[in-house]
Amino acid sequence: MRKAIYLAASCAFALAGCATNPVTGDPAVTVQAIGETEPVGTADEDAADDPAIWRNPADPAASLIVATDKKAGLYVYELDGKRRSFTDAGRVNNVDVVDMGEVAGIVVVASDRTDPANAVFRMWRLDPATAALTPIGSSAVGAGEAYGICAMRAGDRLRVASIIKDGRIVERETGFLKGNIAPIGTQSIDRKVPTQAEGCVYDPRDGTLYVGEENAGIWRFDRGAREGTLVAPADNRMLVADVEGLAMIPEGEDGGWLVASSQGDNAYAVFALPGMEPVGRFRIGAGAFGSTEETDGIGLMPGSFGPKYPDGLFVAQDGDNAPAAQNFKLVRWDAIRAALGID
């Protein structure tokens, strides 16, 4: 959600404070995008929302980005930003991609908010050769508006965390029968953060779930635990509300980095795992492909993506791509690491 809504509400009650105390976090280093996607089809609206990355292990430069136009459907882009396909999927909000290998292929899962009273997630299979998406089913989540979503592979099953807009979290596991979904061993853990939430990411090593409560910060839920811990508050230093997209690069047994969209001041906060120690902040500044503002979803993946992105790829939604419609910006992960001084 856009920060301006909350800022306007707070200013209505404390105008003088808003005038003298602008919301801004700690200083952020600047990096530049070296690529961008074609704009989404919905113009003059807040439409582009969330990207997810599929890395092609056989030909990293042929990897793909799946991204949502939350007013219309799903786009699949090449790394040069060209649109490969569009699927009329309606009001899909957040998206994730999990390679299930021989079990079910490359699975795309998205939160469907078409019916704001009843949350659903939908699934497709991604063809890496044609970039086409083939529907393989859907699953009802429960009452409430579907908002965030993230997924991971858990053996031969797909584990999905559906974030309801009011902060409830529903976790499901889905199996596959001849490549199509067949819900098995449905798991529903009573989890909730106090207020509106959206972004989430799994640590694929142990199933730890991180959830962004927009006005409060980042929560961590250990695998199977009902209660979470607020591990990174929205303190107007590292994180300026709204806390939006979350993404992760695991490294080693329990290390790596978690990145969050600090939407309130157009920056991104980086934390070191497993302790969530603050590492630093960066923003995508003006350059050949422009800066990013009011970022919702982000994607991050390690490994080579060819000569242009030799050591990891970061993708961020751009909320202000005027005069064109919103799109997604691409940044080298090694450039971000160098700017932050990450060894």
Strand content: over 45%
- Decide which structural class fits the backbone: mainly beta
Radius of gyration: 19 Å
How far from one another are the termini? Answer: 33 Å
Q: What's the assembly state of these chains? A: single chain
Beta strand count: 26
Largest sheet: 5 strands, mixed
Strand line-up across the major sheet:
1-23-22-21-20
Proportion of helical residues:
under 10%
Low-confidence stretches: 3-20
Structural key phrases:
343 residues; mainly beta; five-stranded mixed sheet; five-stranded antiparallel sheet; 3 helices; 26 strands; 7% helix
Give a structural overview.
- There is one protein chain.
- This protein is mostly beta strands.
- Helices cover 7% and strands 49% of the residues.
- It has 3 helices and 26 strands.
- The strands form 6 sheets. Strands 1-23-22-21-20 form a 5-stranded mixed β-sheet, with helices on one face. Strands 11, 12, 13, 14 and 15 form a 5-stranded antiparallel β-sheet that branches. A 4-stranded antiparallel β-sheet has the order 2-26-25-24.
- It is globular.
- The protein starts with a helix and ends with a helix.
